[in-house]
C-alpha cells in the first residue's frame, strides 16, 4: 500500500508529537518523583523535629519537677514558706553578716504577718475575755465588750471612762 506524501508527512508529524509527548511525560514523571522524594525528606525532617520537640518538652517537665522538689526541700529546711526559725541561737555567731541581715529581715516580715493575724483574730473579740464577739457599745462610743463582760465592768477597758450607758447590738 502506497501512502501519499501528505499522509506520510502527517504520520511523521504524529510520530514526532508522540515522541515529544513521551519526552514530556518522562520529564513530568521525573518531576513527580523528585516532588515525592522532597515530600519524603520533609516528612522525615518534620518527624525528627517533632521527636526532638517531645524530648525537649519531656526534659523541661522533668527539670521543672526537680526544681519544685528542690524548692520544697529548701523551704522545709528554712522552716517553710512562712515563719522561719533558728534551731540554735549559738549558731548565729557562725553566720555571715549578709545571712544575718536576711534572717533579720525575714523575721521582721514574719512578725508583721503574725501581728496582722493577731489583729484580725482579736479585733472582733471582747477586750476583757477575748473569747466572745463584741456586742456592746459604751457611752464613750467604744465597741470593745461582749454582753457578759459589760455587766462586770465599771469603766471602758480602752479609755477607762466610767460606764454610764450601755447599748447592745
Automatic annotation (TrEMBL):
Keywords: Coiled coil, Metal-binding, Zinc, Zinc-finger. Residues 126-160 form the RING-type domain. SUPFAM superfamilies: RING/U-box. Residues 11-59 form a coiled coil. Gene3D superfamilies: Zinc/RING finger domain, C3HC4 (zinc finger). SMART domains: RING (SM00184). The keyword NAD does not apply. Pfam families: zf-C3HC4_3. One of its GO terms (molecular function) is zinc ion binding. CDD domains: RING-HC_UNK-like (cd16614). The keyword Cell membrane does not apply. This is RING-type domain-containing protein. It comes from Exocentrus adspersus.
Amino acid at each position: 500500500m502506497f501512502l501519499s506524501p501528505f499522509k506520510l508527512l502527517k504520520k511523521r508529524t504524529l510520530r514526532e508529537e508522540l515522541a515529544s509527548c513521551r519526552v514530556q511525560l518522562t520529564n513530568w514523571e521525573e518531576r513527580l518523583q523528585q516532588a515525592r522524594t522532597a515530600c519524603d525528606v520533609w516528612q522525615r525532617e518534620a518527624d525528627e523535629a517533632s521527636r526532638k520537640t517531645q524530648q525537649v518538652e519531656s526534659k523541661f517537665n522533668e527539670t521543672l519537677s526537680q526544681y519544685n522538689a528542690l524548692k520544697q526541700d529548701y523551704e522545709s529546711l528554712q522552716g517553710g514558706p512562712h515563719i522561719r526559725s533558728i534551731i540554735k541561737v549559738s549558731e548565729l555567731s557562725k553566720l555571715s553578716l549578709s545571712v544575718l541581715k536576711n534572717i533579720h529581715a525575714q523575721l521582721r516580715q514574719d512578725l508583721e504577718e503574725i501581728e496582722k493575724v493577731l489583729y484580725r483574730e482579736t479585733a472582733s473579740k471582747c477586750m476583757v475575755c477575748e473569747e466572745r464577739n463584741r456586742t456592746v457599745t459604751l457611752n464613750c462610743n467604744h465597741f470593745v465588750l461582749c454582753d457578759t463582760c459589760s455587766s462586770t465592768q465599771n469603766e471602758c477597758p480602752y479609755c477607762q471612762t466610767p460606764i454610764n450607758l450601755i447599748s447592745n447590738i
